[in-house]
Amino acid sequence: MKNSNMFLVADKIQAFKRKLALWTKRAQEKRMDMFPLLSDILENSPQVNISDSVSQHLSQLAEKFDEYFAEDPREGHMWILDPFSVDPTANDVALPSHLESQLLEVSTDSTLKLQWGKLDLGSFWIAVSKVYPCLALRAVKLLLPFTTTYLCESGFSIVATTKTKARNRLRATLEATLRVSLSPIPPRLDLIVSKRQAQVSH
User: Fold this and answer.
1) How do residues 14-31 score in pLDDT, each as one tens digit?
2) Which of 12, 51, 55, 157 would bridge with 30, disulfide CB 3.0–4.6 Å?
3) Distance separating alpha carbons of residues 116 and 109, to the nearest angstrom
4) Could you give the number of structural domains in the chain?
């Protein structure tokens, strides 16, 4: 997932945990409409009753998720998502007192508030770093860690499709090929083509 951070990933994990709870409840009520293919099979085979097994499996899956993600990384850090609605005097902001003071200043800074809606989260905190470097550094440090293996998986996929048996001598140019393939910057083909002369037919 591009541009992910701990808040986006934690939201998705929380949503999946809630889905598991809902699906477990439905399975206990012998309703399988959340799994369309299974539901169709069971409609054609009314004698088969697997709702208890499905319910048990979903409960175990929910327990495993609770083990893997026991703590919510968002706790105490919601000020990063919206520094203008979190009150350090009322909410747990997990900050030392000098940074709490900076957060109070940020929350009342009308210039930064105007930038808040126009910039993505990372860009906003980079803008804040010009005035409040210590607070912004704390926010950026929490936003930076890789929360998914998206980039690694993209790289492996591109190597697998690029370096085939037919193209096994790409050692020298594989790095350049990967750089171009993984770059988020789209090529300006119109500019490249305009600088090349069409080949004259013989």
Assistant:
1) 999 999 999 999 989 888
2) 51
3) 11
4) 3
